Amino acid sequence: MEIVHTPVLLNECLKYLSPVGEPFESHCLMIDSTLGEGGHTYNFLKKFPGLSVVGLDADAVIQSRAKERLAEFGDRVHFFNGWFNEFYDNYPEEYEKPDLILFDLGISVFHYEKAERGFSFRHDEKLDMRLNANSETSAENLVNDLPEEKLADLIYLYGEEKLSRRIAKAIVEARSGGRIESSKALAEIIWNAVPANYRYGNIHPATRTFQALRIAVNSELKRLPDALQNAFRDLKVGGKMGVITFHSLEDRIVKNYFRNLGKQCVCPPEVAVCRCGGHACAELITRKPVVPSDEEIKVNSPSRSAKLRVIRKIKDDTEYHLAGVIGY
Q1: In the list 123, 146, 151, 292, which could disulfide-bond 296, CB 3.0-4.6 Å?
Q2: Three-state SS for 240?
């Protein structure tokens, strides 16, 4: 089997989420919330013989690849096909509470190179971008059906694209001559819409628009706040949770929630008497995000924007700990 995706910050994950030396060393359950091709899970299972893993993924196609890769571990690994927010919202009774939870919020290289769903503007593919084939909305729907103003807002909010108005206007003008159905067609529209000096920057001018569409199609940022809170509540006391982010929007959500969990009191200023318990709910194991080394970036360029944050659970959170967490 050809492995397409290289797990980012692998050594750092093995270090900061290691169960070694803790009460659950001999037996430990980990939830890999974003299994992908199983890269992180494979290495965790190899390194920690007492570990079992439940791997979650919304994409049944890539999960089938992970099942093949992880077959050697037998009943030490189990699979759930669905969105991670749904899993943690209704944590299955047949599983014990996890000792470790990992989220890798990046999109697998498999999706860019092999999925043929229009994630990449380097290929001429159907403009889809759905991780789960059962999702109703595709990138083609958004590009062809959204009003110009809403399309511009989407590109600006989720892609942080400063030329969002200009790009949306060009898309709407182009679709008046027929539906935009391929990733290559959309990329060419964006290329021609931006100024000449914008075409030759550090990234392709379509990068942020494609990111925005993918985030919107899969409701990535909308799923994250509830998923984090429910995952933390499902986590055993003393257990650890790590999240790898790849852009500022998702990292802001993780940073704010983790920071609030680490505060002694998170009651709003107008509350005269503390109602949240007055104790931190989590220890911030990584007070600053862990980033890839120069060596890793050289051999695995998609890792360049990755950030890992890890906490250890002390006690359950309260509704106050979501204060300040940005939702979408």
Answers
A1: 292
A2: strand
Distance of CA 181 to the CA centre of its chain: 26
Tell me if the pTM is above 0.85. Answer: yes
Q: Is 203 helix (H, G, I), strand (E, B) or coil?
A: coil
Q: Residue 218: which region, alpha, beta or left (left: phi > 0; alpha: psi -120 to 50)?
A: alpha
Q: Which pLDDT belongs to residue 327?
A: 45
Measured from the Cβ of residue 80, the count of other Cβ atoms closer than 10 Å reads: 20
> What is the model's pLDDT at position 2?
66
For residue 11, give the H/E element and its range. Answer: helix 10-16
For residue 132 the two structure tokens come to 């789960």
Distance CA 212, CA 214 (A): 5
Helix (H, G, I), strand (E, B) or coil at 81: strand
**What phi, psi does 103 have (nearest 5°)?**
-115, 125
- Please state, as a whole number, how many other Cβ atoms lie within 10 Å of the Cβ of residue 162: 12
Structure tokens at 244: 């790898």
Length of the chain, in residues: 328
- Token pair, residue 279, equals 């104790």
What separation, in Å, do the N-terminal and C-terminal C-alpha atoms of the chain show?
Answer: 38
Write out pLDDT tens, residues 217-248.
999 999 999 999 999 999 999 999 999 999 99
Tell me how far apart the alpha carbons of residues 257 and 321 are, in angstroms, rounded to a whole number: 7
Asked if 33 and 17 touch (Cβ cutoff 8 Å), the reply is no
Give the mean model confidence (pLDDT) for residues 90-112.
92
Torsion angles phi and psi, residue 104, rounded to 5 = -115, 100
- Residue pair 283/308 in contact by the 8 Å Cβ criterion: no
Q: Are strands 51-57 and 28-32 parallel, antiparallel or unpaired?
A: parallel
d(CA 192, CA 205): 10
pLDDT at 111 (0 to 100): 87
The beta strands (E) that lie in 110-262 are given as 240-245
Pair of tokens at residue 298: 């050289």
